[in-house]
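Quick illustration, no need to memorize.
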Amino acid sequence: MACRIPTRRFGALAGVVMLGLMWLSPAHGAGSYTFSGLRWGSSPEEAAKTLREKGFKISKPKTGPATEYARMDAWLDIREVDRGKRMRATGKYLGEKVFVDMVFGFNNQLERINVRTAMWDQTQKGGKRMTEVADKLSTHFEQEFGIPRDKATPYGFVDTAEWGSAGDGSGMELFIRGTEGFMFYPPHKTVLNISFWNDQYGSDAAAIASTSSGGEAYPVSHQVDLDGSNR
């Protein structure tokens, strides 16, 4: 039986109430987006202690350009970006090996966190595994922070999830992208990346030293079906 949208006063009131509940959901009102308990504005010493207590190995802080992975519409952009002081960590998160890049900027306060899994290994099995991890992480973050503002699953797995802005100025997104728009298509690189940031602690504008990819997104027909055939 088909359902008809009510047009009487009660139906209109119910619609207003539902919209209000959606606006108050965690997706629109999370207190803070961050990774594994890291505190925005913390010093490198505090951040290192937080992750070390969770089994991460921490490298010494460094300054200068470093590699970052950005989502440019349908393609992956690999950049060398100077954001001031950084510190790297390696460890397990939800049982998955991750690489954590913590940015402390020019004011020595945590302002950005970039997390990624291992680069795609160019195999069908490795690609399928990456999509499974993306779905796993997305589900976990939805439980922690609420439903994303925008979520895309065009190929049966989460390739983009954006949570918008939280009350403290922080934001986050998760994505899978391939260089020049070729996702899971050898020899192009494919990355699963999760970025967290907080505009309240952003220091001077980052200097992008170079960009290794970009241009127009290629059509979906160039992608490899992870079940074994080209689309």
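The longest helix spans residues 124-145.
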